[in-house]
Every structure is written in structure tokens, then in C-alpha cells.
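## Example record

The block below lists the input lines for one assembly entry, exactly as stored, with component labels intact.
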Amino acid sequence: MKTFSFIYDKLNWEEIKEKIYKKTDADVKRALASYNRNIDDFMALISPAAEQHIEYMTQISNKLTQQRFGKIIQLYIPLYLSNYCVNSCVYCGFNRNNNIKRISLTYDEIEQECKVIKEQGFDNVLLVSGESSEKANFNYLINALSIARKYFSAVLMEVQPLNTNQYLQLVKEGLYGVYIYQETYNKEKYKIYHQDCLKADFYYRLETPDRLGEATINKIGLGFLIGLDDWRTESVFMAIHIKYLEKKYWKTRYSVSFPRLRPYGNRFIPKVNITEKELIQLITAFRLFNTELEIALSTRESPKFRDNAIKIGVTNLSAGSKTNPGGYTISCDTDNQFDVHDNRSQKEIAERIKSLGYEVVWKDWFMLQNN
Amino acid sequence: MEDKLVIADKSFSSRLFLGTGKFSSGELMERAILASGCEMVTVALKRIDMRGQNDNIMQYLNNKSLQILPNTSGVRTAKEAILVAQMAREALQTNWIKLEIHPDPKYLMPDHIETLKAAEELVKLGFVVLPYVHADPVFCKQLEDVGVAAVMPLGSFIGSNRGLKTEDFIKVIIEQSNVPVIVDAGIGTPSHAAAAMELGADAVLINTAIAVATDPVSMAESFKLSVIAGRKAYKAGMSYSLEHSMATSPLTPFINDL
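Predicted C-alpha cells for the full assembly:
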């Protein structure tokens, strides 16, 4: 079976980057006027030449988003299962080389966390775990899923890449979606950031959405980390990836996320910076490129930015997030994956969203068992 | 005689139905429904949380005279649709179901193979089935044959506000149908709605065009008026339009000389 690797290998990072930076004002205007925007148009919208059109892009993005999704925002919340990890991603708090307090929740503790999250009003949950065959193996994940399914209609996962059979089993158990970020689409840089660990296999990660598509999962969340390489070039690779996936796995919906890496402690300083204005350009360029894409924004961003992002194309916000295992019930002293910037409670965020003229949607899936 | 629309065992004075998604608040949705004068609204079962404290859309739809039409939005197969219809019947105490099966989450195009299977089964299970379909006249007849209560052909893509792109096919469906024809999806302006009614559609279903308007309440009223106007015009027997003006130099006077 041909996977995205086949297309990826024909792409050249430097050539694409050069193309983006050579886009002109006329290219941007053509892209803005276009009805069905292609990758070339996307390159123009993401280029430095589009900077002076960001306000206009935002206006269109707002209209397209409202028409497709309505005046609503969906809230989600992560549930960290385990911070044990065999990988050495230099930007991540759970890096195996970091001397942090590690725990993996017991099934009872997972159930307790689910109860608390459910009481807060959520009807969906994102299960997150570091990769560890000892402390959080596949069996552990599938059991965690069954526990969460008792409380939530939509359960999603953000864990290590799995194989197709494992995804088929999870889908059968009612898994709704998987977030799998490529981190960086630059193969050479990827090697540097993920040395001597399971995650070092670039292609296995790159082909993960193919395996999820094979399993006909409902939703796949893609993303790259802002802070590892040129974000404009990353975004074009991701746009090509999405276009490929939509055509091939047409029963699946897609979401994207643009996590800006934040320094943790003094151990990691992001290599690439992006301004908030550029982040708006990134979000709106994706919206203009793909009307149906869900765009999620995490609590890494500031309250002010998140409040405004509602009107520029974002459809999903995390709220009240704790990024350490047991964060909602048992423990405040395990270490975080990243520091949360928007510390408001889910209730405060929901009220703010309403005051901005949007409805908060908590439930958007069926409570079907073993569908 | 009053011009009532009868679907299954219910009659409706209003020929405008509303969808309940995309509104910026439950209160606003409630006011828009009231202003529209509509008597039936469709609600996605996936959005209904009977246990939830935060998000109970049903609290805004408790007007007793409002017929609730739960829909299966989100399902990808006949099997899932049947399951969801049964859940809806239990949760909402109604055997009415808007059957929509769209495995494609991008354009939300209805899957006819699965829709026919599900419709047949649901009718057997005692449901009043209103299926969302492409404007396909043959398929509408096939659905009629398995016992659906109405057909709901699309005007264009869901949520697109692009109007009656399928007009020619809708005309054929209206001409041939023995069950009510409700134009669903794509109607973006009151004039589109009036046009559908002038063609002889029995009703229209609107959501995005009202929910996403700057003033949904006022827009709901506009749709109410346009649906009434379109229906009245249809009933009044419209004058015809001609491709060309009448020739001033007639071609047939020679007949008198024969």
C-alpha cells in the first residue's frame, strides 16, 4: 500500500521553503480571490507577502468558520495517564533524561479523574500518555479507554503511534479520534530532536495517519510543533498531508493544532519564534485553504489570545487543563508536560465564550457502546 | 379550506422547519424558532445530553406544540443510524426520525445505499422516517416504496447557502412524489425559500441561513414570510413566463385565407 511517505519523498524542504518566500503580493491577491484554493494558493497565504493582508484573511476566515461550524466553540480537556517515557524529545517535559517525578495512574485513579472531569461538564476527553511498554502498554491504553467510555461519548487519544491492528481494536472499543503530531516534517531535523529512541523512526510516525485512516477512525488530529523549524514550510507540508489524507480516507474528519513550544524550566529554549500576528496568519491561512478543518488551540496560549482566536477560525479550545498525571484529583506535585498559560477554569472560559457571543458545545457525539 | 401540510399522522400550518445547530445561544435559538412560526425542528441526537448540567439543548425546545424531529447526523452506516434512531426514540419519546447518513464529513453528502437499507428497517420498526437525500427522483420513489413519510432532497451542499442548485431534479421529484417533499440543505436566503415553495415543494428546512445571520430572529421572520408568499403563489396558479415576447407579425393569418 502506498502511504504518505511515497508523496513525502518527492518533496524537497528547501525548494518548498524557497517557493514560499518568493511569493509576491500578486500571488496573495490571486489566492484571496480564488474560490477553491490549492497548495500554491496556500503557500501564498502563508508567505511573508501575505502579512499586509492578515486583517482581510481574518475577516474571510471568520465568515467561513461561522458558516461551517456555527457560532459555537467546542471545549476539550486532556487526561494525562502516565508520564513515563522511553523517548528523548528534547522539547518535552517527559523526556526520559529529565529527572522528574513519574507516575502512571492506576485504573481506579483513571476512574476518579474521569468522574471529576465529567462533573465539570465535559462529555469528551483526550487521554494522553508518554510511551512506555512497561508502564503504559497497549493493554493499559485499551483498558483506560473502556473506563473513559463509561463517562464520555467521545474519547480521543494522544499517545505513541500504534499499528493498524491496534487502531482497529481501539476503534472497535469506541475510540473516537487520535491526535498524532508529526512534531516536524523536516526529516533531518527530526533526527536531531529524537535521538536514540523509539520515536526516532520518522517514517513510522509520518505514516501513522495512514494506519488510522485504514482503521476508519472518526477523527485524526495533525500538528507540528512551532519552535523546531521554519513554521511556514512546516505548514505547507502539513497542508499537503491533509489534502492527501482527505482524498484517501474520506470518511475521517481532520483537525489541526499549532502548539507553540514554550520553554520548560531552563532546559529547552525554542529555536524558532512566531509572533502572535503570524500565528493568526497561520490559523486563517488554514481556514481559507480548508473550510471543514477543525482548528484546536490549547492552554499553552494566553487567555487574551484564545479569547480573540474564537473569531478568527479556531473551533476547539481546551479548558481547565492539567498536564500532569493525576492533576485533577490526586496530585499537584507530579511534573507537567508543559506549563499552562491559560489557567482559567472551564467555567470561567465557558462564560467568557458566551459573553463573546458564542455557544459552548460540550457534547457532540453519541453515547454508543462498542459501535 | 386551510392549507395544511400532513406528514404521517400530523398536520402542520407552517411549512417552514428549522434546524437547531450553529446558534450562538440557546435563548437566541428559542426566539428565532418563535419568530419563524415553525412547528417542527430537527435536533442532532449527538448534541442532546439528557444527563448533562451544562448543555441541555432540549430545555429551549420544550414548547409542547413543537414537533421534535431528532436526526442521525454523524452516523456513517445504516447500522449506526438504526441504533441512533432507537436511542432518540427512547430519549425523546418520539418515533419521528430524520434519517441522514453521510460517511463523508467534508461535504456531508448522503449515502443512498445505506439510507435505503436504514429507511426500510426503520419503517418496519415503526418509525416515521424523513430521509435526507440527493435530489434523485428515482431514489425518492424507491424510498416512497419502502414507506418513508416524506423525502428531503438537498438544494445544494449543507450549510452552503448556495440556493437551489438542483432545481431541475427537485421539479421532477415534486411532480412524481406521493409523499411530501421538503427541500433541505443549501437554502441561503428567503428568496431561495420562496422559489422552492413556488416550485411546489411542500416545505423547506432552514438552519445555517438563520442561525448564522447577524440577527437570527429577524431572519427567521423573513423566512416565515417568504415561505408563506411562495406557497400562496404556488396555490394561486402562477402566470407563466415565456422565453420570447409574443411576435407582433403573426405567422398564421394565411389560415383564414385557406
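The mean pLDDT of chain B is 90. Chain B has one domain: 5-236.
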